[in-house]
From TrEMBL:
<dbReference type="GO" id="GO:0016020">
    <property type="term" value="C:membrane"/>
</dbReference>
<comment type="similarity">
    <text>Belongs to the peptidase M50B family.</text>
</comment>
<dbReference type="InterPro" id="IPR008915">
    <property type="entry name" value="Peptidase_M50"/>
</dbReference>
<keyword id="KW-0645">Protease</keyword>
<feature type="transmembrane region" description="Helical">
    <location>
        <begin position="488"/>
        <end position="509"/>
    </location>
</feature>
<protein>
    <submittedName>
        <fullName>Peptidase</fullName>
    </submittedName>
</protein>
<feature type="region of interest" description="Disordered">
    <location>
        <begin position="125"/>
        <end position="156"/>
    </location>
</feature>
<dbReference type="Pfam" id="PF17820">
    <property type="entry name" value="PDZ_6"/>
</dbReference>
<feature type="transmembrane region" description="Helical">
    <location>
        <begin position="212"/>
        <end position="232"/>
    </location>
</feature>
<keyword id="KW-0378">Hydrolase</keyword>
<dbReference type="InterPro" id="IPR041489">
    <property type="entry name" value="PDZ_6"/>
</dbReference>
<dbReference type="GO" id="GO:0004222">
    <property type="term" value="F:metalloendopeptidase activity"/>
</dbReference>
<dbReference type="InterPro" id="IPR004387">
    <property type="entry name" value="Pept_M50_Zn"/>
</dbReference>
<dbReference type="InterPro" id="IPR036034">
    <property type="entry name" value="PDZ_sf"/>
</dbReference>
<feature type="domain" description="PDZ">
    <location>
        <begin position="220"/>
        <end position="309"/>
    </location>
</feature>
<feature type="transmembrane region" description="Helical">
    <location>
        <begin position="6"/>
        <end position="24"/>
    </location>
</feature>
<dbReference type="Pfam" id="PF02163">
    <property type="entry name" value="Peptidase_M50"/>
</dbReference>
Length: 519
């Protein structure tokens, strides 16, 4: 029973930390938007039906039923499609574009009337007069008779041109419907408070505020992990000394009479001995000592150690051993023919003891940077990683512990760790903070992907606007105005559908084939 309660507690803790991270992400959008004078109508955590809300000033704050993110609704995120038309309200949340801004809906202007807008895209050439709707005729019917694609073609448009026109009309309608989905016309005198009228740098600050808040949280959580709890590191103290040397591929656990004695044991080294110097060179880390040993096969080394408070000198001769060469990232180096590259290195049959070291706070940026690089690498290879997840979920393959994981998997992992009663409480707490830090790094990197409706897509739109306006200025052309990111709505829905499919696959895989970090 205790384990079950601890498992549930682990899930609850990580859900709360994730909720706090999402809430602060949206505050990262909210604060600069209000600072720059943009009217913010909603600040919501979650999506779907509202569980609780309260209006303070002009902004409604609330919590919704689906805890899958959040959003901030600002008026005029999309500029009007035509001069003089009222700009539209939209949100920063990508799931909200599906849950609450579905293009199937028809919006109500100030709740008084239904907006029924019919838009035509005319870039494919003017249609003949006979094919234009007469005043009062239904929009879906030609003005004269039952003109069809064939009649259009007979009047000068090829079937391919007709098909392209229909396709472009469909996209235009999609864009317009998305504009109208959660739209509310801007009240008189508030046009200057729309998002689209902000200077480019302010748009970037508003949209980057959310991801940057997650980055700050990652600094906080990882600071607690490495500077508060500390990290396990190899020390210059021996943790174990083997009696003999056996091949790395061997499974034997005891030494046989024919096995050669380990150089460390032959030299008289014992667990607990602290390494001080080798051939007069002071030893500051285990990696330094291991490098010296590896570079000295069959060469006697003068060793200075500290044992029980006193200093002793020993002679150590590393045993030559063929080992696979690895790079700085631990990856096997290959020969030109694809076989693993090997080299003769020294081996002594001893390993280092580990100790918990609290790193200075100045080490946090590098620690976070390494995590950002790793997550970015996963996202760049996300399609291939998702194929691996599919193969694991529906086949015999195991999940990659360094691969993508969904909310279900994160919750399971937190529950498993917290319910490990044999582990110290401090170690379990440290893991939860580390997990929260990793989640915030993931939120930071993922939201900066330059695709709508992610924050990175809006930032990319603002950068494109700066380039477009700057180029027009250099050429002494009229200001082209703000970029209409609403035209990216078709791509937005493709991205949302892909993300939804990815989420479903990860949830299924996290249930039937969860990531196993502890064997």
């Amino acid at each position: 029973m205790t384990s079950v309660l601890l498992y549930a507690l682990g899930i609850l803790i990580i859900v709360l930390l994730l909720g706090i991270s999402i809430a602060l992400h949206e505050i990262g959008h909210l604060l600069p938007a209000k600072l720059f004078g943009v009217k913010v109508t909603q600040y919501m955590i979650g999506f779907g039906r509202t569980l609780w809300s309260r209006k303070k000033g002009e902004t409604e704050y609330g919590v919704k039923i689906l805890p899958l993110g959040g959003y901030v609704a600002m008026i005029g995120m999309y500029p009007p499609s035509k001069p003089g038309e009222a700009p539209r309200e939209s949100t920063t949340g990508f799931l909200n574009s599906v849950v609450e801004e579905s293009p199937v809906k028809v919006s109500k202007g100030h709740g008084e009337h239904i907006v029924d807008e019919i838009t035509r895209v005319g870039d494919v050439g003017e249609l003949p007069d006979a094919d234009r709707a007469a005043p009062g005729a239904p929009a879906s019917m030609p003005a004269e008779g039952n003109a069809s694609a064939e009649s259009l073609s007979a009047d000068g448009l090829t079937p391919e041109a007709v098909e392209e026109a229909e396709y472009r009309r469909g996209l235009a309608g999609w864009v317009d419907e998305a504009r109208d989905a959660s739209a509310e016309t801007i009240a008189d005198g508030e046009d200057h408070r729309t998002f689209y009228r902000l200077p480019v740098w302010k748009k970037i600050v508003v949209m980057a505020g959310g991801p940057l808040m997650n980055l700050l949280l990652a600094f906080l959580f990882f600071g607690i992990v490495i500077s508060g709890f500390g990290v396990a590191q190899t020390s210059t103290t021996l943790g174990a000394v083997n009696e003999c040397l056996v091949p790395a591929s061997s499974t034997q656990t005891t030494c046989g009479s024919d096995d050669p004695a380990a150089p460390a044991a032959a030299a008289g080294l014992l667990p607990g001995d602290k390494l001080l110097a080798v051939d007069g060179e002071a030893i500051d880390s285990w990696e330094q000592f291991r490098s010296i040993v590896a570079a000295s096969p069959a060469q006697p080394l003068s060793l200075e150690i500290e044992r029980a408070g006193s200093t002793e000198k020993l002679s150590l001769t590393p045993e030559p051993n063929e080992a696979v060469v690895v790079d700085k990232n631990g990856q096997t180096v290959l020969n030109e023919d694809g076989t693993p590259k090997t080299a003769t290195v020294g081996m002594i049959g001893a390993s280092a003891a580990t100790e918990t070291v609290r790193l200075p706070i100045t080490e946090v940026p590098a620690f976070v940077g390494e995590n950002v690089k790793n997550v970015a690498g996963i996202i760049v290879k996300l399609p291939a990683r998702m194929v691996d997840v599919w193969n694991a979920a529906f086949g015999p393959d195991e999940r990659d512990p360094n691969g993508p994981m969904g909310p279900v998997g994160v919750g399971r992992l937190a529950g498993e760790v917290v319910s490990m009663e044999q582990a110290p409480i401090a170690a379990r707490a440290q893991f939860i903070f580390s997990l929260a830090g990793s989640l915030n790094v993931a939120l930071f990197v993922f939201n900066l992907v330059p695709l709508m409706p992610l924050d990175g897509g809006h930032i990319a739109g603002a950068i494109y606007e700066a380039i477009k306006r700057g180029w027009a200025k250099l050429r002494r052309k009229p200001d082209p105005g703000p970029v209409d990111t609403a035209k990216m709505v078709p791509i937005t829905f493709v991205v949302v559908i892909a993300l939804g499919a990815m989420g479903i696959l990860l949830a299924y895989a996290d249930i039937v084939k969860p990531v196993a970090l502890f064997g």
